[in-house]
Write a structure and sequence with these properties.
Oligomer: single chain
Strand order of the largest sheet: 1-3-5-6-7
Mean pLDDT: 87
Radius of gyration: 21 Å
Largest sheet: 5 strands, mixed, barrel
Distance between the termini: 74 Å
CATH class of the largest domain: Mainly Beta
Shape: globular
CATH architecture of the largest domain: Roll
Low-confidence stretches: 211-218
Number of helices: 5
Number of domains: 2
CATH superfamily of the largest domain: LON domain-like
Helix content: 25-40%
CATH topology of the largest domain: Archaeosine Trna-guanine Transglycosylase, Chain: A, domain 4
Length: 218
């Protein structure tokens, strides 16, 4: 167990995924400066109750992700923009309120799975769903994503597929909190099936509602 400065946000950070933040509150200026000076990460946790800004009583979910600071852009009045990269999942054991910012007593919470054949099968079933989902969103002009760049690494593609899903943050938190990789992949496939069915329905309805031209093209 170790102490970890916490940043409660209305977002879910997954390992291997980037996050950009604008730091303007005094307590978080202090926290980030401390992390930069000591070369240690901070923890990103989804807010369970409370507000993202100016709410010292914000209550976080217990599963979060460490964030390693990669780049800091200083601004006026001590504000800053920063880029961080998700590293490892953690579980909060206790909370400390003796600093201006929240500190968690945490332990690392890696995904457990010994059945790598089941994981490989799960990824093989998930991958075409991801590609189909991206194609539909790209056709609708909602995203720009080169599907040929989809990674092959099992853990990376699992976490990236969670990031790509346009679903509420509480559902993403459910994915982050998965005990095992196979559990996460099962839930991801369920969510992708649901989202694909919804997108297909919406696309078909839009096509049906498209006005037909009264003029012949001949």
């Amino acid at each position: 167990m170790f102490d970890l400065p916490l940043f409660p946000l209305n977002t879910v950070l997954f390992p291997g995924m980037p996050i950009s933040l604008h730091i303007f509150e005094e307590r978080y200026k202090q926290m980030i400066n401390y992390c930069v000076d000591t070369k240690q990460p901070f923890g990103v946790v989804l807010i369970r109750q409370g507000r993202e800004a100016a709410d010292p009583a914000a209550e976080p979910h217990l599963i979060g992700c460490t964030a390693e600071i990669k780049q800091v852009q200083p601004l006026t009045q001590g504000r800053m923009n920063l880029l961080a990269l998700g590293q490892e999942r953690f579980r909060i054991i206790d909370l400390k309120h003796d600093k201006p910012y929240l500190v968690g007593v945490v332990e690392l919470f890696p995904l457990r799975d010994h059945d790598m054949r089941a994981v490989t099968r799960g990824i093989a079933r998930l991958r075409p769903m991801i590609l189909r989902y991206l194609d539909i969103l790209k056709d609708a002009g909602q995203i720009q994503f080169d599907s040929s760049q989809l990674p092959n690494d099992t853990t990376t593609i699992a976490y990236l597929s969670a990031v790509l899903l346009q679903i509420p943050t509480d559902q993403k938190q459910t994915l982050l909190a998965s005990e095992r990789m196979t559990d996460m992949l099962t839930e991801l496939r369920r969510m992708y099936r649901r989202e694909l069915a919804l997108l297909n329905f919406m696309r078909e309805r839009n096509e049906d509602e498209t006005p037909k031209s009264p003029f012949s093209m001949n």
